[in-house]
Specification:
mainly beta, binds beta-D-fructofuranose, 511 residues, ten-stranded antiparallel β-sheet, six-stranded antiparallel β-sheet, single chain
Length: 511
């Protein structure tokens, strides 16, 4: 079954949602401040991420007309700092033909610097979008291209689309990069239901030759979508080149996830470094999905954005948000080469600009079987805190943070615990109501490094992204706290823990 069906279930069929669609209640309390959301209506995958002349372009799967999946088009926004986004008109709308409608499904965008496509004007290379044309009536998916000569604002569809047509119903999400050494374009594209990625090559973005395929390795529980293949220097060393293949997996009723493979690419074939059964995950939560890297970043930067798949709780007048932009690195570890993620370095400049009232810095605090309130200063009780903390483990069995806290005197009415448990060696997120744990929302196995745990916790109204130990592992989830549940504390239970450093930035307003 397709992700499409999954969206329909999410967006249309559940009675509770139907009711919400009839009578939508605005939910400003859940609109993130420093994560991207469309002004209104539905959003899913990031598409065509590209950096052009100092500006990050984000295109995204968008229904311009309704707050549910449908009429798929490429929405568009730009940013210079990956925090402040400018909303722009739809860049590629659905195509209404005589006897068919073409929806603009996921894909990528490249800057065709050498005008290999011939679409350029006045000696300038165009921006070319490569996407899947989904034709529901024909039950067909094939690869289309469109070009822009105004810096990615408006696109013209190529007259001879599709450029790859296998006459299949399930063939999508082309991701294209430029291979400088071969002077050729390389495409990764998915056959979701049979869990296969194909690699194609082209000199002009119009004629594509099949190079090879990669299938049924790693996590094969769900269909494969939104692949990307990216070269890296492992540990930043140009002598150690490796390729990262990322794939999104989803199935209705069984959630979503992203996995990755590291390996070699000889210009034709990708060879997995690991045993075919080895499973490596990009994120350990239930929402992070469809992430792709930006094309044409300066130097060696590798930055991606992912979509946080909405849970059942409806939001209005928009639905869907992006993750924080994440910098990627491949590092050598005792287990092999692994993917590390950090909030994009460009964002640090923004954090530095925040005033003293919005910045908290504490050092060497011991918390002993206690809770340390951190939101008494008004500036930190808006559910928009970005926390960066390093703990040295002690005798405490559990330690970490309590967020979205609502108290009645000393009594906890509601809170979300982001904790680390020493016995189980795991990070967990639990929901507490009337002082009792009512649900474990997420958990992830991770070990202290030299008795230390670093937690970067990015809480933004309804999203929660947690990077552990410099981004060795990441867990992303969604939360829907009550309006007045905004308290925030650090805690240690059954013993002590040392908080070596605690930095908190409150990003409640965009500067
Ligand atoms: C993933 C996905 C893609 C497809 C797009 C359609 O979320 O199903 O495979 O191109 O969404 O909106």
């Amino acid at each position: 079954m397709k992700m499409k069906l999954f969206f329909m279930l999410l967006a249309g069929l559940l009675p509770v949602l139907l009711h919400a669609q009839d009578n939508p209640v605005p939910t400003p309390q859940w609109r993130p401040v420093y994560h991207f959301t469309p002004q209104k209506n539905w959003m899913n995958d990031p598409n065509g991420l590209i950096y052009l002349n100092g500006v990050y372009h984000l295109y995204y799967q968008h229904n311009p007309f309704e707050n549910k999946w449908g009429h798929m088009s490429w929405g568009h926004a730009t940013s210079k700092d990956l925090i402040n986004w400018k909303h722009l008109p739809v860049a590629i709308p659905e195509i209404e033909g005589k006897d068919t409608t073409t929806w603009i499904f996921s894909g990528s965008a490249v800057w065709d610097k050498h005008n290999t496509s011939g679409f350029g004007k006045n000696g300038k290379g165009p921006v070319v979008a490569i996407y899947t044309g989904d034709q529901p009536k024909q039950k067909k998916e094939s690869q289309f291209i469109a070009y822009s000569n105004d810096g990615g604002l408006t696109y013209t569809n190529y007259a001879n689309n599709p450029v790859i047509d296998l006459r299949k119903g399930d063939f999508r999400d082309p991701s294209v990069i430029w291979l400088e050494d071969q002077q050729k374009w390389l495409m990764s594209v998915a056959h979701p239901g049979i869990q296969k990625i194909e690699f194609y090559s082209s000199a002009n973005l119009k004629d594509w030759e099949l190079l090879s395929e990669f299938d049924r390795q790693g996590d094969t529980r769900r269909m494969w979508e939104c692949p990307s293949l990216t070269p890296f220097f492992v540990d930043g060393d140009p002598a150690k080149k490796k390729w990262l293949l990322m794939i999104s997996s989803s199935s209705p009723g069984d959630g979503v996830g992203m996995q990755y493979f590291t390996g070699d690419f000889d210009g034709r074939t990708f060879t997995n470094d690991n045993h075919a059964a080895t499973k490596l995950f990009v994120d350990y939560g239930r929402t992070f999905f469809a992430a792709i890297p930006f094309n044409h970043l300066p130097g060696d930067a590798k930055t991606m954005l992912g979509w946080l798949v909405p849970f059942e709780t409806p939001t209005h007048p928009w639905r869907g948000q992006m993750s924080i932009a994440r910098d990627l690195a491949l590092k050598t570890t005792p287990e092999g080469i692994r993917l590390y993620q950090q909030p994009a370095a460009v964002l640090n400049a923004y954090l530095k600009k925040l005033s003293a009232a919005k910045t908290m810095l504490k050092r060497n605090i011991t918390i002993n079987n206690n809770e340390l309130a951190l939101s008494s200063a008004k500036s930190f009780n808006t559910n928009t805190n970005w926390i960066d903390a390093t703990f040295t483990t002690g005798t405490a069995q559990d330690f970490g943070f309590k967020i979205a806290q609502q108290k009645d005197g000393n009594k906890v009415v509601a809170e979300t615990v982001v904790g680390y448990n020493m016995a189980r060696q795991e990070l967990y997120i639990t929901q507490v109501k009337d002082g009792k744990v009512v649900a474990t929302l997420e958990k992830m196995a991770v070990k202290p490094v030299n008795n230390k745990i670093r937690l970067q916790v990015l809480f933004d109204k309804s999203s929660l992204e947690i990077f552990v130990n410099d981004g060795e592992k990441v867990l992303t989830t969604l939360l829907f706290p009550e309006k007045n549940a905004t308290g925030f504390a650090a805690f240690a239970a059954e013993g002590d823990v040392q908080l070596d450093t605690l930095k908190v930035w409150n990003l409640d307003k965009i500067l």
